[in-house]
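stage 2 :: seqdesign
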C-alpha cells in the first residue's frame, strides 16, 4: 500500500507572495487534495540576512485569502536548528562531510569544488558534503529524468555556511523527512538542488520523496518573475481571478462561469491533472489569461 500523500509549500520569507510562488503553492495544494493527502506549509526562515520583516505573515495571510490553509500548524525552519545540527554532526562524524575554509574568491574559477580542504582537519564553520564518484538519476513527475555524475557535475557542496547557518540543502532534507513529505512540488529554479537533496537523503539514511518541478514564470525578456517585480499581476487581482489565472497557467481549464472562490477550488480539486502542466509557460501571455 502507498503511504498517505503529504505535500508542502515552503516559501522563503524574502518578500510578498508573487505569481511564481503562487503557482508552486497551487500545484502542491492540488496534488495533495487530489490524493486525499495533507498539505503543509513550512516557512524557510533560516537566512536572516535575506529575510524581509513581515513577509512570512504576509504570505500566510495571502494564502488564506486565496483559500489555501495548511492541514497542520505552519512550520518554521528557524525552530529546527537542533535537528540540523544533529544531522551535521552525524555527517561529520561518519566522514561523509568535511570542514572547508575556502573563500568564494579562492573558488571563483572553479565551477565544481576542487577538493582543497577534503583532507585537512580545519575548524572552519563551513561544511561540505563529499560527493561520491557515481551516477545519480533524478526522476521528475513532469520534467525529463536527468542523470548526474555526482563528483564531476556537482562536486562537494556546502551543507553548513561559513556564517554558521544551516545551508538550504541540509535544512530542506531534514525537514522534508521530519514532516513525512512524500512528494515535493516546486519551481524549476530548484531542479538543480534535487540531485544534491537525493544524495544528502542517502547519506543521512532518509527516504526519498517524489519530485515534480513546475516551469518558471518569466517576463518578456525571459527573466524569472521575482518577488521584486512591481508588475507582478498578482498585485492587481482579486482572489478568484488570481486562482483562475494560476489554474490556467498550470494547464487546467476552469469553466468561465464559476464566480465563487470556493466553487472554483471544488472544481479544481476534482479536475486537477498534473500531467496538463505545460513544460514551459508562455512568456507574453500572462496578462491575457482572462483575469
Ligand atoms: N524556500 C524555497 C523558495 O522559496 C523553496 C524550497 C523548496 O521548495 O524546496 O524558493
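stage 2 :: out
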Amino acid at each position: 500500500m502507498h503511504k498517505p500523500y503529504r505535500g508542502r509549500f515552503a516559501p522563503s520569507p524574502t518578500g510578498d507572495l508573487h505569481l511564481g510562488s503562487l503557482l508552486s503553492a497551487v500545484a502542491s495544494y492540488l496534488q495533495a487534495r487530489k490524493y486525499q493527502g495533507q498539505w503543509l506549509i513550512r516557512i524557510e526562515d533560516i537566512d536572516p540576512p535575506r529575510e524581509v520583516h513581515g513577509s512570512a505573515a504576509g504570505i500566510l495571510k495571502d494564502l488564506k485569502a486565496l483559500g489555501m490553509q495548511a492541514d497542520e500548524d505552519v512550520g518554521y525552519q528557524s525552530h529546527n536548528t537542533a535537528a540540523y545540527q544533529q544531522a551535521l554532526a552525524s555527517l561529520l562524524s561518519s566522514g561523509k562531510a568535511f570542514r572547508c575554509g575556502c573563500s568564494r574568491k579562492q573558488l571563483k574559477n572553479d565551477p565544481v569544488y576542487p577538493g582543497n580542504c577534503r583532507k585537512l582537519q580545519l575548524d572552519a564553520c563551513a561544511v561540505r558534503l563529499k560527493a561520491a564518484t557515481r551516477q545519480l538519476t533524478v526522476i521528475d513527475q513532469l520534467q525529463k529524468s536527468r542523470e548526474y555524475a555526482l563528483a564531476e557535475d556537482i562536486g562537494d557542496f556546502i551543507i553548513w555556511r561559513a556564517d554558521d547557518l544551516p545551508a538550504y540543502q541540509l535544512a530542506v532534507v531534514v525537514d522534508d523527512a521530519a514532516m513525512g513529505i512524500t512528494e515535493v512540488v516546486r519551481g524549476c529554479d530548484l531542479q538543480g538542488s534535487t540531485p544534491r537533496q537525493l544524495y544528502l537523503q542517502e547519506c543521512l539514511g532518509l527516504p526519498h520523496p517524489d519530485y515534480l518541478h513546475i516551469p518558471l514564470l518569466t517576463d518578456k525578456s525571459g527573466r524569472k518573475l521575482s518577488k521584486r517585480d512591481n508588475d507582478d499581476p498578482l498585485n492587481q487581482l482579486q482572489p478568484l481571478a488570481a486562482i483562475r489565472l494560476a489554474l490556467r497557467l498550470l494547464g487546467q481549464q476552469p469553466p468561465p462561469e464559476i464566480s465563487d472562490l470556493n466553487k472554483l477550488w471544488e472544481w479544481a480539486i476534482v479536475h486537477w491533472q498534473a500531467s496538463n502542466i505545460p513544460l514551459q509557460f508562455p512568456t507574453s501571455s500572462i496578462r491575457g489569461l482572462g483575469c
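stage 3 :: structure notes
- Residues 97-168 form a domain with the Rossmann fold fold (CATH 3.40.50.620).
- Residues 91 and 111 are 24 Å apart (CA to CA).
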